[in-house]
Amino acid sequence: MWSRRQGRLRPTVCGVEELRRRRREREAALRKARREQQLVSKRLLRNDAPEEAGEGCVAAILGETEVQQFLRQAQRGTEEKEREGALVSLRRGLQHPETQQTFIRLEGSMRTLVGLLTSNQALLQLEAARCLHELSHSEQSTVAEACLPATSYLLTYLSSHSSDFIELCLYTLGNLIVESEAVRRQLLPQGIVPALAACIQSPHVAVLEALGYALSQLLQAEEAPEKIIPSILASTLPQHMLQMLQPGPKLNPGVAVEFAWCLHYIICSQVSNPLLIGHGALSTLGLLLLDLAGAVQKTEDAGLELLACPVLRCLSNLLTEAAVETVGGQMQLRDERVVAALFILLQFFFQKQPSLLPEGLWLLNNLTANSPSFCTSLLSLDLIEPLLQLLPVSNVVLTVLCNVAEKGPAYCQRLWPGPLLPALLHTLAFSDTEVVGQSLELLHLLFLYQPEAVQVFLQQSGLQALERHQEEAQLQDRVYALQQTALQG
Fold this sequence. Notes:
- A hairpin with a 2-residue loop joins β1 and β2 (8-10).
- α10 packs across α11 (181-190).
- The protein is built from 32 helices and two strands.
- It is an all-alpha fold.
- It has helices spanning 16-34, 50-53, 64-76, 80-93, 97-105, 109-117, 122-136, 141-146, 148-156, 163-179, 181-190, 192-199, 205-219, 224-227, 229-233, 237-244, 253-269, 273-278, 281-298, 304-318, 323-326, 335-352, 357-369, 372-380, 384-388, 396-405, 409-415, 420-427, 433-449, 452-459, 462-467, 476-488, and strands spanning 3-5, 8-10.
C-alpha cells in the first residue's frame, strides 16, 4: 500500500479500493488455509447379545486352523444355530488385527464369507455382514481391498427390507470407502451414488444417519471433486440433504450433523456452489442458524456445537461465491435476524466452546464484506462493543470493523468515537504485526471518512502509539502515512 521512493518514506495513492483489494487478497489466502484438512474416521457397530457379553472373556486371536474351522462350520454345519455360532466366534476373533490378516491370507476365505452373505438364511446373512463390518474397520488398506468381492452385494442389500441390515451395510461401505481408492473405483461404476440416493428416502433415523456417514466418507476422497461430486449434484441428493437440515419438529440432530458435514465437503469442492444456492441452501442454513441460536438460549446441551460448526462453515463458504448476488443469495438471508442469531451463538461459544469463535467471526466477516445492510444491522443492534470484547480471541474482529468502515462516512460516524478508539490504541501496543497492520488500516479508513477522529486520536496519545512501530519494515510505510495525516489534521 505504501512504497519507498527517493530515499524517504512517502505515501502512494491509496484509497478505499486499495484497502479493499489488500484485505480481499489476505482473506482469500486465509480461506485457502482454512479449508478443512480432511480428517477421516471409521465407525464400528457392535451389539453383542447379552449372553455373549456375559461370558466374561475377551475375544481371542484366531489362528489359521481356527479360522478355517469356523468357516467350515458356518458353511457346512448341520444346524442353523451351529452355523450362526461359528460366524459369531469368527466375527469376535476378527476384532483383532492379527486375525484379520490371517483371514485375508487364507485362500478362499472371502469367497466363503461372501457365499454366506448371499445365502437365503437371514441370520447367517446378518452375521456374515457383521464379519465384513469388523474387517472394514481395519486400518490396513489390504484388508479393505480384500473385501472388494463383497461390495456389489453390500450395495444390493441397501434395498433390503431390514433397516438394521441396511444400517450395517452403510457403515461397512463407509469404512471401506475411506480406506482404499481401489474400493471407491469399483463402487462408482457399481452404482453407489444412485444406491445412496435411494436410501435417503428411508423413514428410519438410524439408516439416514448411517447414510450421512457413508456419503461424507465418499465426499472426502481426494478424487471426489472430479469423479464423485458431479454425479452427486446431478442426483436428488442435494435437495434431500437440504430437506434434512430444515428446522422444525422433524429435524433430527444426529442426521442433521451428518448431512451438514456432507454439504460442507460439497461446498469446499467448489464444483457447483451456484447450484446449491439456487436450491435455497443459504435460506435453509440461515433458518437453521436461527434455530440453533434459539436452542442455545433454552439449553446448555454441549452437543449443539456439533451441528453449529458445519453450518457456520457452509454459510461462510457460500457467501464467498460470486453467484450469491446473481441468484439472489443475499435475499435468502434475513439481515437483522441472522446477525442477532450469530451474536447469540458467539456469546455461547465464548462461554462454552471457545474453539468455535473463529468460525462464527469468519461468517460475520463474510456477511459484512459486501453487504451494507448487514453492516447496518451490526450498528443498529449496538453490537460493536460486544464485537470488540472478542478482539483478544481473533483479529478477524478488526477485519469486520474494516468492512463496516469502508462503507463510507455514515458508517464511520456511527463507529466513532464509542469504545473503538481505546480498543485500537490497545491493539497498537501489540507485537503482532498482522494485528497492528489491520488496526492501521482501520484508522486510515476512519481518518478518511471521519476527519474529527484525527483530533481525538491525537488527544489520546495516538502519535506515541504509532511511534512504537515506525522502525518495523512491514509497517513503517503505513505508520508514516498515518503520522502525516494526523499531523496535517
